[in-house]
Every structure is written in structure tokens, then in C-alpha cells.
Fold Purine permease.
Amino acid sequence: MHPVDRKPPLPQLIAGGLQHVAAMYAGVVAPPFIIGSAVGLSPGQLSLLISASLFTAGLATLLQTLGVWRFGARLPLVNGVTFAAVAPILAIVGQHGQDDALGVVYGATLIGGALVVLAAPFFSRLTRFFPPLVTGTVITLIGVSLLPVAVGWIANSEDTASGSGLLLAGVTLVAVLAFNRFLSGFWSRVALLLGLAAGTLLAWPLGQVDTSTLTEAPAFGITTPFHFGAPQFEVAAIISMAIVMLVVMAESTADMLALGEVVDRPTSERTLADGLRADGFATALATVFGGFACTAFAQNVGLVALTRMVSRYVVAASGAILVLLGLFPVTGGIVALVPQPVLGGAGLVLFGSVAVAGVRTLAKASFERPANITIVAAALGIGLIPIAVPEFYAQFPAAVQTVLGSGISAGCIAAVVLNLLFGDRATRAREVSREPA
């Protein structure tokens, strides 16, 4: 039996699942918080919107890891709310009144999810254009693009870091490294979770832990179907979301290919198609309960590489925990106790691990040919443009901003095109299983 399919003991399932939740919690709650604030939701409604995103992310993760028929990659893959859709959604909100905005968003997202389900088997056949030269470049960009998020957490979302923020991030970083180095077996694999706990304990006497998340959160709550309005279908919004979902599919494909390398189970076209179908179905289902578009989370791919806990059942446990957090918002408040600087300190290791995984994949490509060095250099440079200067494409049409404004998608497109034009025959095609998608 492959390690991916083995079921660890219950304590390891729970601890490993909690670690995955801790790694992706901020990424799941940030998009609904930004969108709900833009729409003008009350604190109670905003809490429900965040809970809905946690609930649907859990369902998506369970579908992705456990699988139902041809839905789910059956890999240790965490699904959550994609940041790629936030900017187009805010544009839609700006064009409509607060009463109709979310209905239009959900209508466009519902169609976008359905399109992903239909396009999955065709999109999965593009894996032949993702040899190690390309996937290594994209995975490296995924890690590099996430590092500014960790830095922002250390600064507590301010322009400059404070002394206390640097202290908390530094202690958390050292704790994660020390636990990983000096502990053995299972405990070394949950070094990130232990580091987050150590950083939070230090933050408590410094007054950096906000306990209001526990006192204000309701004990139980879940959004009823279409609580924030029935879907409304507008052509412009649907086109915008369809473009976003193409980017999401490319990012999910890169994450699944990266995860296949990490767990030593090459990702076949069928696996990619099943994974993308799960993304699309989860996205469509999320609109019913008040969630948003779902995608694979790159930071959790890095966590799998860091902890070496490759069982998909560990990640399924994180999906079950997310469902519970969505049903009981007060328990979500416990996870939210972790201060941002503490998350940032752990994020430096976590997101850096994603970039290292990309470098390891690049090592499988042949750099004896100068052309391959040039291809990687150019693709990395193009991918770093929106990371270095986020407003670089601000004067371009919205469709161009959506695609090139993501360093991952821009770098991915550049790597694929440059490899097709200038790569040798050995690097132009990726050998994947030809099992029907």
C-alpha cells in the first residue's frame, strides 16, 4: 500500500489535521472578511460568511482527499477559498448595490464552477506541457509569491514591523526550527503546530492575543442555503469569473503536480481531471452555503513536504475539523487566537518549503543546455513582476490584470510558452499516465 493511502493512528490524524488547519486558516478567512467588509455586512452576518467559507472548504477538502466516483484527486490536498477571485469579486461589488452584489457574485461563481467540471478532462491533458523544467519554475514561484504574505503577517498588516512583532515572529521561527531539528518521529512532524503554540503562549503576557474572538462568536451557527441571496446571472460577471477559474485550474494543476512529486506518486491525467472536477463541484456547491471559489492551497503542499506526513487521511481530518469550525464559530475563534506575527514566523518556513520543493523539482531538469537556464530565468523574472510591483498591470484591461496580475499564472504561461519555443525535445513533453481522464 502506498503511504498516501495508509491510515495513521487517531492521535496523529488529529494533530496532523490541526496543523493543516493552522497553516491555512488565515488564507480561508481572509477572502470572505475582505468581501463581506466591502459589501457592508454586519458583524453577525460577516461571522456567518466566514463560517460558511470554513464549512465549504472542509467539504471540498473531504471530497478531494477521500473522493466520490470521479470527483477528488485522492491526494493529501487541502482546498480553500482562492485569493484569485477576490479582485474580480470586489469589482462586481463596486458595480452593483450591496443588496444585489453577492447574488451576482454567486451566480457567476456557480457558472464558473460548472465550467470547471466540464473542462476538467480536457484541461488535464495539458500535463504533457508541464515537464520538471516548467513545474519546478511554477512551484518555486508559488513559494516566493506566498512569502510576502508571511512578511505582511509579521508586520501585523502594517507598513512597518514593530519590535513585539519581530520578537514573536523570531521566537516562533526558532521554535519551529528547533522542534524540527531536536524532536524525532511524530513530534518533529508537528513542529509547525508546536511552534505556533509556543509563539501564542509568548504573545499572551505581551497583550498580543485578542480573546474577543471567543466572547463575540456565537456557539453554533451555519448559513442556510442562499442565505445571502439567490444567484443572479450577468454575462460580464460570468466572463470575469470564467477567466478567474482558468487561472485557478492552472494553479490547482501545478499544486497537484507538485504534490505528486512530494509524495512520490506521479500525477496522472485521470488524477488531475478528478481533482479539477472536485474543485469545480466544490466551487458550485459553495455558492449554495455562502462560500466562494475553491482551489488547492499551496502552503499545505509545503506542509506535506516539511512534515513528511503524506497520508491523505491526515488531510481529510483537517477537512472534518474545518467543517466543525464552520458549524461552531466559537471553536474557530480558538484558532483565530494565534496572532499574525506568530503566523508570519511559521509562514517563513512553511512558504519557503514550497520554494525549496520547486528547486528540488528543477534539479531533475537538465541545465547542461544554456537554453534551459535562460527559460527558467526568464519565466521566473516574468512571474516576479506582479510580486515585486503589484500594480504593474493596473493600466491594462481587466482580463489581462486577472491573468498576468498573478505571478503564478504569469510565470506558468511564460514557462510553458518558452519551453515549447526554445526547449529541446526531451523537455517539451512530460511523460504522464495516459489513463483516460
User: Anything to note?
Assistant: DSSP finds 19 helices and two strands in the chain. Residues 3-426 form one domain. The chain has a mean pLDDT of 82.
